[in-house]
């Protein structure tokens, strides 16, 4: 019995999404900041529960590193906004995202000042609260940032005779 050989024509590679774009550096800095903020919350919670001084100092170091990443994301986002590459239709999403974006470095500065005041002591409830507040603001801002860059299909505007 002869073997049946089927010819399969190579299909052209299709893009997974119709309007997919590569991520900018700002996105990856924000992901690093979210990871750091989550780690700060976990370490602060464990340090608060165990009342460990050594773990409290590790948490302070993590807060400093995460604050540096958050400040970098803030300034990089500001640079991207000032470079003028934002479509005018996206400004209604960009302005609230930027307003919430100014709160993230502020909360991390408050968190640093609370932790710096109690350096060498156990984690207090205010440090724990500001850590979770920072994470909540970052998650809200991350959701708002997805609305800023959400690609939409192009809209074709009809030309009239007076357009030139």
Q: Count every helix, treating DSSP H or I runs of 4 or more residues as helices.
A: 4
H/E series:
HHHH
- Could you state the oligomeric state of the chains shown? single chain
What about the largest sheet? none
User: Any low-confidence stretches, pLDDT <50, length ≥5?
Assistant: none
N-to-C span:
72 Å
Shape: flat
Blueprint of the fold:
Elements: H1 25-50, H2 53-82, H3 91-117, H4 125-149
Q: If you had to describe this structure to a student in words, what would you say it looks like?
A:
By secondary structure, the chain is mainly alpha-helical. It has one domain. It is 66% helix and 0% strand. The chain is built from 4 helices and no strands. α1 (25-50) packs antiparallel against α2 and α3 (91-117) runs antiparallel to α4 (125-149). The radius of gyration is 24 Å and the shape is flat.
Task: Briefly characterize the structure.
By secondary structure, this protein is mostly helical. The chain has 4 helices and no strands.
